[in-house]
Amino acid sequence: MSNQLTDENIMAALGQVKDPEIGRDLVSLGMIKSIEITGSTVDLTVELTTPACPLKAKIESDIVDGLAALGASTVRVEWASNVKRSFGGPAADLIPGVKNTIAVASGKGGVGKTTVAVNLAVSLARDGARVGLLDADITGPNVPLMMGTTGSHVTGVGGRVNPVVAHGVKMMSIQYFLTGDAPVIWRGPLIHSAIQQFLRDVEWGELDYLVVDLPPGTGDAVLSLSQLIPLSGAVIVTTPQEVSLVDARKAIKMFEKVNVRTLGVVENMSGFICPDCGAEHDIFGSGGAESLAREFGFDVLARIPLEPGVRTGGDAGVPITSSQHPAAETSRAGAALRELGRTVAGRISVIAAPFAAAGTAGRPN
Ligand SMILES: Nc1ncnc2c1ncn2[C@@H]1O[C@H](COP(=O)(O)OP(=O)(O)OP(=O)(O)O)[C@@H](O)[C@H]1O
Ligand SMILES: [Mg+2]
User: Fold this and answer.
1) Partner residues linked to 233 by β-bridges
2) What is the mean pLDDT of each run of 10 residues along the chain (365 residues)?
């Protein structure tokens, strides 16, 4: 039986194992980096399209099943990752080291965009990705507060600016240029040039994902930001009630207008778990995001419950997904946000696959 364990047979068997998200086999995707056969033991290195792979366990069990059929008694898989680029165009040249950009948006204010953006970034970083977070909310920058960096200021030389780093994420916000709480009352053109500088002049280095926290609304300001920043896709945040859903619909249509793909919808404040009785209460209703997603043919990427720890984490600058948050291991909202990171990473891998196949994926790693 074990004489079937040859490189050729193993490659043929792995050619039958599909990356469930991308829908193509591991061999044609170039994911098998090495094979070592020692008796009936096989050691493999498999290169994933993201370190935050949502379907790693499924891929591993399919590999083990496939090789067991050839007589392998032990299969050891070592995981590597190579995140591919999923956007192009002239504006992409402003951030040559950035592989993917994900906007977090909503039509309505206060629904949890910054909370989702911050936790999405921290989740991806905790899974081993290189992550940046761009606070594109120039007049209401909240990223520094939620990441515990309100006291940080930019440093740099020769016109280049270093990002501020916390919770494993590189960040840039207008707040890092200001002293005190004076409001920013800039209008369109100044905001435009600030964002351009954030893209062009910040030392982002190599990033797998740059998460962009957009300001609320669907007016001219947000519309022009969505055109200015080269985007792989957008995550739309809504709460379950109708007023938020109506505005989320507007946001989706705005992105359609500027040819930015919507990755899906996040329903935030989706049910409240009573800390006293443990029962779940739908304070803002339920099912709204589901019907919105169905209307446009998207998925609900995550449902994040309303939980005091999310708010206290935001106020204290320790996101619920950070290992430093006291409820990191127990919070249901935290678990949903960790899962959101993997789901979004999976979606991005699917988008990047045709770019990589067409040889338009920027530079090799
Ligand atoms: N799931 C949640 N559970 C508890 N509190 C939450 C949750 N999501 C957001 N919050 C809290 O709600 C408030 C508003 O959230 P956040 O600032 O993220 O919204 P936003 O959409 O970015 O607002 P803006 O439109 O002003 O930019 C914050 O205090 C945040 O901590
Ligand atoms: Mg915000």
Assistant:
1) 102
2) 81 95 91 95 95 92 96 96 88 91 94 97 97 94 96 85 97 88 71 88 96 90 86 94 88 92 94 78 78 90 94 97 94 96 95 65 33
At 222, which helix (H) or strand (E)?
A: helix 220-228
Which residue matches tokens 């709460």?
A: 239
pTM: 0.91
Element (H, E) at 208: none
CA 94 centroid distance within chain: 20
Sign of CA dihedral 37, 40, 41, 42: positive
Using DSSP's 3-state secondary structure scheme, residue 195 falls into helix
Q: How far, in Å, from the CA of 272 to the mean position of ligand 1?
A: 14
Whole-angstrom distance, CA of residue 79 vs CA of residue 7: 19
Ligand 1 centroid, distance to 240 Cα (angstroms): 14
Half-sphere exposure of 243 (CA within 13 A, CB side): 5
- Residues framing ligand 1 (Cβ under 6 A): 106, 109-115, 137, 140, 142, 216, 268-269, 304, 306-307, 310-311, 314, 333
- DSSP conformation class of 297: T
